[in-house]
Amino acid sequence: MDPNIKINLVLIRLSFLLLLGFAVGILQPFGMGFALATAAGVALAALVVLVETRLRVLSLNQLLGAISGLFVGAVLGLVLVAALRGHANGGLLPVVIPLITGYLGTAVGLSKSDLLHWDSSKAAPLPSSLKILDTSVIIDGRIADIADSGFLDGVVVIPQFVLRELQMVADSSDSMKRNRGRRGLDIVQRLQKVPRISVELVSDDVPNVREVDLKLLELAKARKGKVVTNDFNLNKVAHVYGVEVLNINELANALKPVVLPGETMRVFILKEGKEYNQGVAYLDDGTMVVVDNAKRQLAKTIDITVTSVLQTTAGKMIFGKYDERHHERPAAAVASAFSTEGNSTTAKELIPPAS
């Protein structure tokens, strides 16, 4: 919810409490004094505000179920009052019976609201279109590029507790953490400017849960949305909770170019490998390439032959082989040519010129 709307809503509730308390105090029903009547009015207003806050978090199906149950219960109560009119003890039963049946109808209707099949696709976005961002994917920043490219649409939800965590990181005494937090806040502002998505800042919280990741999962379950993350551990826990996850790292791995064994590729050997006579290179997307027979080719760009490709949960690894004989053969041929030319020149020099 927008902070300005939240402040205005608080002011409206306070005004309602004061006005209803003052009105009941002036009327002084049931012979109550001004102070007691005012307190009763404020208590009644607080009860109404409490009901309003609970109604706001109900889904459309739940709200329709509760209203339908209340209507049926109230009608049943009025029928019972009419039937018992001759046996009513004063004016108590005509008031109590509709209240009891209305309460029972509301409770039963709310509990059975999942049986309703109301098509709310035109009134609100489908629950599956909600994408809830976690802190790590915002700091990572690639989510903004994905949104700019048009591959992300619908409603993007950023909880207030995620923004608070970003602010805490941005206020850290560690310069590296501080830069990461500020980058995350910049990414949020960038997402708000993307026309294809609707960024929603929600104040929903889970007070009885302290960890941000668990709050995120509980919010995703409540709103039936998907969590967007690049956190490996959160990805695993989300599957345990039954929450759908969109992992940015898995998307990046899926977009990496396909390399098949036997193909030739050109790489820059950056460092030595762990095994004997190995060199290690990296592609532009960060994929590690382990090359046999490349230890002596450090800081050189060479052509290798792909031998195998290994796909892991952490990413893709490519294994290749550098053939020294293939690259040494042209040099040997050139040296042989120079040697032959040199020998022939020497032979010509030994032949005496014709007189």
Q: Topology, pairings included?
A:
Layout: H1 3-27, H2 34-56, H3 60-83, H4 93-111, E1 131-133, H5 135-140, H6 142-149, E2 154-159, H7 160-170, H8 175-192, E3 197-202, H9 212-223, E4 226-229, H10 232-241, E5 245-247, H11 248-254, E6 264-272, E7 278-282, E8 288-292, E9 301-312, E10 315-321, H12 324-350
Parallel strand pairs: 1-2, 1-4, 2-3, 4-5, 8-10
Antiparallel strand pairs: 6-7, 6-9, 7-8, 9-10
Characterization of the model:
There is one protein chain. This protein is an alpha/beta fold. It folds into three domains: 113 residues, no CATH class; 128 residues, 5'-nuclease (Rossmann fold); 64 residues, OB fold (Dihydrolipoamide Acetyltransferase, E2P) (Beta Barrel), CATH 2.40.50. The protein contains twelve helices and ten strands. The strands form two sheets. It has a five-stranded parallel sheet with strand order 3-2-1-4-5. The protein is elongated. About 8% of the residues have low confidence.
Features:
Rossmann fold, elongated, alpha/beta, five-stranded mixed β-barrel, 12 helices, single chain, 10 strands, OB fold (Dihydrolipoamide Acetyltransferase, E2P), five-stranded parallel β-sheet, 355 residues
